[in-house]
């Protein structure tokens, strides 16, 4: 049935299809022209010198004396897929050395020979053409003289089968072959093999292209079944080729290499075989694309879980380093090894500072005052003079920490009173035990963050939370929007800033617990050994350990804690108060709040409603301490010491004002000029921010109210709340308290309370009293705001009169006026009283405009 045609085109060049339809569709393939392989080779042989099978793709052999067989599984199938093996020659050298042509020939000879039926001695392997891509090779044999080609091939196949059965006696090889079916097999090459190295990798599907008349399914099955089990045969329909689907890829490889180029039906049909690429289906990708509502949230949950498992331990580690200051150079500066590096560093730093001072002295730079302050601030002896008054309060704060009972402490005082230095330097910094585990959080830095990402970054830096990926917030918002548009629901990837800060604090709580219990295991082991020695059995709990050793608990310091700011991050105050309340309730840390805003305590009361806070109030330094501090800063050789006493009284003991006063004197001003300039600046601040800010809706005060407070406090150090309530502008108690609280928050006044009830009012800064006196003493300013004050009083009385007149009109419409006579008399007296007040206010306005300060004392008479 088959006839060999060696001079046949392997792939037809141009094919046209003619259709005829006797019974269904039939196709007739007509070749317009073809090239003979032998003629093509002869033409190339005249030019080319290399005519091997690897070069030409054609394996030459004599039909009568030689035969070609294809052997499967001579090479590892994985080698065929190493397309970049040239880049890994060093790694693959050991593998390639095992499969040289000589060793493969030895393997073939071993497979085709047996002890009982060896091949004849004249049956030689003439050539071997490896096909590593397919995992096999073409082997050309010299046929023995006393055997036909068919007998020779049958003997080879029989010997290979016998060797396979012998190898199955080894249970391991039997199982291996049973699973992978990797024992070599051999098949006779019936066509003209096309030895190519194209990127057409083996698959179990074979495309059979017909050059000439196509074959039927039965014919195809008869031709290809010998190479292995066939799953399906797809006959040609619209295209001039059929598809053979084998069960195993090994069968497809053998069929492709043995049948391609086969000529049938006396040359009317030539078969050309190609691998059909495997279309691999990624079920994971398919599931993600087709089930987005399930897959996307699942993927995000997996990513979040992996991120938590990887990054959270790292972040907790860095938070612990931040609290314990493990790698702080200042902490180990007394270590003998650190001194080797630290001392030269300080020496070089001193040289640089000295050089700057030298340049500043000669250039008379304005930076001289700042550097002089920095030099003086480094002298502990001079600074401690101001802090000697607070020594008892420092001892009290340390005592509260060591008592370890409800250690929720509040340090309050006016701005510039040195609250932060009191806590960080003089209480914790000087204590080697309490100062070793401190976490400092500056609320002002957080509240002034420009964006959400900046807030999260600043918060993470202060807590020690690292690494932080703020850029993912912007990306997650776009992802969340895309997921919502596709699936109809949010992915949950984007989180609010509140949620992210809560996550940071949650991890910080774990780090604080870890730091506080760092010595618990050693203590527990020591206690257990002691108990075993004494014959006792006592269970040591973590809470008991923290209660017995308060110095092991970290100290959380919250600075610049306020009730409300003008920014968009006010929630951080509530968030911090709730977090620290949980730390106190869990007995994990000591908490110290530093604030100048009395109203901020309400946040803490809401977080710990049943807690009695331990409070320390820091006031300004005494006059004697302030005087000694300024003299020490200026030096004992300062010539104008006699002027210092008179100039310090208006400044009081506020640290910021004292430092500014010293800087001005060092810059060349006299004490009197420095004081006048500072008073002028303070007066300008009051005028700009308080008197001229009445149009802003955020401020709930009027210029007349500010002027009233200024007039009263310019003559007295403090005024009582009862006295303030006598003024018509402060009649409403709720509005008055709101106004006074706002002014206290902005540091214009200071409110003193007795048992929680407002008792007296004083200036927020001692310097403001001099500023009030300066403003009230200015005739132009006095006339303007005094007239404005009486104008507001007139408006109040006019409003009352209008209200009384409306009530009179309503009463006058009633028929029985005798019953309402007393009410009418009452309203008439009220109208007369308000009218007399208006007349008096107008007279005083005219006197003020004429005489200026002549009516300066009138204000106190009208209360």
Automatic annotation (TrEMBL):
The keyword Transmembrane helix applies. One of its GO terms (molecular function) is RNA binding. It is found in: Mitochondrion inner membrane. GO terms for cellular component: mitochondrial inner membrane. Keywords: Membrane, Mitochondrion, Mitochondrion inner membrane, mRNA processing, RNA-binding, Transit peptide, Transmembrane, Transmembrane helix. Gene3D superfamilies: 3.30.70.330. It is a single-pass membrane protein. One of its GO terms (biological process) is mRNA processing. Residues 390-814 form the Mitochondrial escape protein 2 C-terminal domain. InterPro entries: Mt_escape_2_C, Nucleotide-bd_a/b_plait_sf, P-loop_NTPase, RBD_domain_sf, Yme2_C, Yme2_RRM. Belongs to the YME2 family. Plays a role in maintaining the mitochondrial genome and in controlling the mtDNA escape. Involved in the regulation of mtDNA nucleotide structure and number. May have a dispensable role in early maturation of pre-rRNA. This is Mitochondrial escape protein 2.
């Amino acid at each position: 049935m088959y006839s060999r045609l060696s001079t046949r085109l392997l792939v037809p060049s141009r094919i046209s299809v003619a259709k005829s339809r006797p019974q269904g569709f039939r196709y007739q393939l007509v070749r317009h022209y073809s090239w003979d392989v032998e003629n093509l080779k002869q033409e190339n042989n005249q030019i080319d010198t290399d005519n091997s099978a690897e070069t030409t793709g054609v394996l030459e052999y004599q039909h009568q004396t030689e035969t070609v067989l294809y052997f499967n599984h001579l090479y590892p199938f994985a080698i065929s897929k190493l397309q970049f093996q040239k880049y890994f020659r060093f790694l693959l050298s050991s593998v390639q050395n095992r499969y040289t042509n000589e060793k493969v020939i030895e393997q073939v000879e071993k497979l085709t020979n047996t002890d009982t039926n060896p091949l004849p001695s004249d049956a030689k392997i003439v050539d071997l053409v490896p096909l590593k891509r397919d995992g096999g090779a073409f082997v050309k044999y010299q046929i023995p003289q006393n055997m036909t080609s068919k007998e020779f091939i049958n003997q080879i196949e029989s010997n290979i089968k016998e060797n396979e059965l012998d190898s199955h006696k080894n249970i391991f090889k039997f199982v291996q072959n049973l699973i992978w079916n990797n024992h070599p097999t051999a098949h006779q090459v019936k066509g003209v093999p096309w030895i190519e190295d194209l990127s057409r990798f083996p698959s179990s599907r074979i495309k059979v292209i017909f050059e000439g008349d196509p074959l039927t399914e039965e014919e195809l099955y008869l031709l290809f079944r010998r190479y292995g089990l066939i799953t399906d045969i797809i006959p040609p329909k619209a295209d001039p080729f059929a598809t053979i689907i084998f069960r195993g890829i090994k069968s497809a490889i053998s069929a492709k290499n043995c049948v391609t180029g086969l000529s049938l039906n006396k040359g009317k049909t030539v078969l050309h075989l190609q691998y059909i690429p495997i279309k691999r289906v990624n079920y994971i990708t398919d599931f993600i694309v087709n089930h987005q509502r399930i897959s996307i949230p699942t993927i995000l949950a997996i990513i979040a879980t992996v991120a938590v498992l990887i990054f959270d331990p790292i972040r907790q580690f860095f938070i612990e380093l931040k609290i314990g200051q493990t790698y702080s150079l200042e902490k180990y500066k007394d270590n003998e090894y650190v001194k080797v590096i630290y001392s030269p560093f300080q020496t070089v730093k001193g040289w640089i500072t000295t050089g700057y001072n030298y340049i500043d002295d000669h250039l008379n730079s304005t930076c001289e005052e700042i550097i002089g302050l920095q030099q003086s601030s480094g002298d502990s002896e001079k600074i401690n003079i101001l802090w000697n008054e607070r020594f008892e309060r420092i001892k009290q704060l340390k005592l509260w920490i060591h008592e370890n009972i409800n250690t929720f402490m509040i340090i309050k005082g006016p701005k510039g009173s040195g609250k932060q230095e009191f806590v960080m330097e003089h209480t914790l910094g000087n204590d080697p035990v309490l100062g070793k585990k401190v976490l400092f959080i500056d609320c002002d830095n957080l509240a002034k963050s420009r964006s959400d990402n900046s807030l999260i970054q600043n918060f993470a830096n202060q807590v020690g939370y690292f690494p932080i990926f703020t850029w993912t917030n912007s990306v997650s918002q776009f992802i969340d929007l895309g997921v919502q548009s596709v699936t109809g629901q949010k992915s949950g990837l984007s989180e609010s800033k509140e949620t992210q800060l809560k996550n940071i604090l949650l991890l910080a709580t774990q780090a604080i617990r870890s730091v506080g219990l760092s010595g618990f295991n050693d203590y527990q082991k020591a206690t257990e050994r002691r108990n075993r020695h004494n014959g006792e059995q006592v269970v040591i709990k973590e809470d008991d350990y923290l209660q017995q050793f308060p110095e092991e608990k970290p100290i959380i310091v919250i600075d610049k804690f306020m009730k409300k700011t003008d920014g968009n991050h006010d929630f951080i105050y509530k968030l911090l108060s709730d977090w620290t309340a949980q730390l106190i309730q869990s007995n994990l840390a000591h908490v110290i709040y530093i604030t100048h805003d009395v109203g901020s305590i309400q946040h803490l009361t809401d977080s710990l409603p049943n807690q009695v806070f331990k409070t320390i109030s820091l006031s300004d330094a005494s006059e004697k301490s302030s005087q000694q501090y300024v003299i020490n800063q200026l030096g004992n050789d300062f010539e104008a010491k006699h002027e210092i006493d008179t100039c310090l009284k208006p400044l009081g003991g506020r640290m910021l004002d004292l430092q500014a006063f010293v800087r001005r004197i060092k810059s060349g001003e006299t004490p009197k000029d420095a004081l006048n300039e500072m008073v002028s600046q303070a007066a300008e601040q009051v005028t700009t921010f308080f008197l001229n800010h009445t149009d802003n809706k955020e401020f709930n005060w009027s210029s007349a109210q500010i002027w009233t407070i200024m007039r009263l406090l310019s003559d007295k150090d403090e005024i009582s709340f009862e006295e303030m309530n006598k003024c018509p502008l402060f009649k409403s108690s709720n509005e008055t308290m709101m106004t006074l609280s706002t002014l206290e928050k902005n540091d214009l006044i200071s409110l003193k309370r007795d048992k929680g009830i407002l008792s007296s009012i004083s200036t927020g800064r001692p310097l403001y009293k001099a500023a009030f006196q300066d403003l009230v003493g200015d005739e132009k300013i006095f006339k303007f705001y005094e007239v404005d004050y009486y104008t507001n009083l007139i408006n109040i009385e006019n409003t009352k009169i209008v209200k009384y007149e409306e009530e009179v009109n309503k009463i006058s419409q009633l028929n029985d006026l005798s019953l309402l006579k007393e009410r009418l008399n009452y309203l008439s007296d009220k109208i007369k009283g308000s009218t007399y007040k208006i007349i008096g206010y107008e007279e005083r306005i005219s006197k003020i405009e004429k005489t200026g300060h002549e009516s300066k004392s009138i204000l106190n008479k009208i209360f």
